[in-house]
Amino acid sequence: MDKFIEFSSKTQGRDKAYRVVQYASKLLGWGLQELEGNDEWVKKLSQLESHASLGRKFFRLGRSIESLRAAQVTINLVDPVLKTTLTVANINRALFLGVDNYLWMGKVGILKVDKGWDLTSSKFYFASIILSLVRDLYALYVGMIRLSSQAKLDSEDATKNSFRAKYYLHLLYHCLHENSEATIDLIKNICDLPLPGSKLGYFPNHNGFVGVCGTISSLIGVYQVANPRMKLRP
């Protein structure tokens, strides 16, 4: 119970919970749409998805400042790859959130917003995910280099391609296992990629596909918020 209270008291926790509802509703709506006689349920799920999406936009008000602050921190990192990927990702996330706040004002009728801004928001979001993926892969690469330096490989066996293949697969397995934070984050970002990508035409704009990817990445996001030690840092 204490864990649930702690999770629900966080803005990020509520956002992730709403996100699960949003994409699970999209997925269930698509599934029921394939069957006859479920029009009423499909309509209700569509409304639930819309309300969850709008609620998430409200939770994200002002969070672009957090991303800019994060960029100020990451720009001082020593590692050039981390410095570049994390800083540019944070800047793109800040721009995405800023445009998202603007879109929210249009949704609630405060301002009249051109629909083209939705694509602009997706472009910033897509760019931030790509950079986050590069960061995840870099973390795993560093992990493999570290494990490789610790392992002892017989020089005669190393010349055998079959042995080398098994060795590197074994190394990759242990790297994914030991760097679970990077592995989980990589899976989440891979699942996140089609969400803006489908709007930009890079992936199929299919409710079932987007619903599955969004639900998986949202559940991983819930897990990361509930278990902060599983979040990749810096």
What is the compact description of this entry?
This protein is an all-alpha fold. The chain contains eleven helices and no strands.
Question: What do you see in this structure?
Answer:
The chain has eleven helices and no strands. The chain has 234 residues and is mainly alpha-helical. The protein has one domain. It is globular and about 60 Å long. Residues 153-159 have low confidence and may be disordered. This is Peroxisomal membrane protein 11A-like. It is found in: Peroxisome membrane. One of its GO terms (biological process) is peroxisome fission.
Number of helices: 11
> Helix and strand succession?
HHHHHHHHHHH
The global form is: globular
> Percent of residues in helical segments?
over 70%
Q: How many structural domains can be distinguished in the coordinates?
A: 1
Low-confidence stretches: 153-159
| Number of distinct beta strands | 0
Structural class: mainly alpha
Query: Could you tell me the mean pLDDT?
Result: 89
Main sheet characteristics:
none
The span between the termini is 30 Å
Rounded Rg: 21 Å
Question: What's the arrangement of secondary structure elements?
Answer:
Layout lengths: L1 H7 L2 H23 L5 H21 L4 H11 L5 H28 L8 H35 L4 H4 L2 H18 L1 H13 L1 H7 L6 H20 L8
Short descriptors:
single chain, 0% strand, mainly alpha, globular, 234 residues
